[in-house]
Amino acid sequence: MAVTQQLARVPAEYLAACRQSAGASPDGDHGWDPPEADTLDLDWAPNLLRRVCELADLDEAYTRALRQATDGDAAIDLAFLGIPPHDIAPFDATPTALSEARVARVADLLDQIDFPAILAGLPRNERKAARLIGHGASEIIGGPRAYLRPHFEALRVFYRGAAQRGLLVVLWWD
Predict the structure, then answer these.
(1) Of 46, 139, 145, 164, which is the most buried if we count CB atoms within 10 A?
(2) What pLDDT score does 61 carry?
(3) Residue 85 preceded by cis peptide, ω within 30
(4) Closest by alpha carbon to 19, among 99, 102, 106, 83?
């Protein structure tokens, strides 16, 4: 079973209700079950996306936004989501999140990244591009460009939707 990054868009009230449920439940059951339409499976693309942006020497504000979009922030306490037997991230650290304000900022910056141009800056030969990227890119069937383009676009659309609806984003590895 592969470990993949998961994201969920949720209202602050939903997160508060899950926190309250975990505190009231004898076994810490938080009742975490965001709607499927508000979740995103980024597979194992985050490190590859960040690496491609590093190779393009993208401005720090954009690389920081991409890092936040895929790492979250520890400012919101989500320890209640990481306690067995109801741990949503059994293979990694405690889930993280971005506040509504940070989600909006990240969404704005992701919208400004010209990802096709970044991919165009890679070597034309897919094997060379994969070696340069590293992080297992040489194992991607179809090549890194075909894999990364839709993952970046999905991330951008996901954050834009969260920002438009005033939601926060919770991230974890499952």
Answers:
(1) 46
(2) 96
(3) yes
(4) 83
Q: C-alpha angle 71/31/98, rounded to 5°?
A: 25
User: Both tokens of residue 87?
Assistant: 């741990």
The strand pairing partners of 171, in sequence order, are 7, 96
CB 144 within 8 A of CB 48: yes
How far apart are the C-alpha atoms of 113 and 111, rounded to whole Å?
6
C-alpha radius of gyration, the chain, whole number = 17
Contact 167, 11 (CB under 8 A): yes
* Structure-token match 């984003």, residue found: 169
Q: How far apart are CA 7 and CA 51, in angstroms?
A: 20
What is the pTM for the complete model shown? 0.94
* Residues 9-57 pLDDT 10s: 999 999 999 999 999 999 999 999 999 999 999 998 999 999 999 999 9
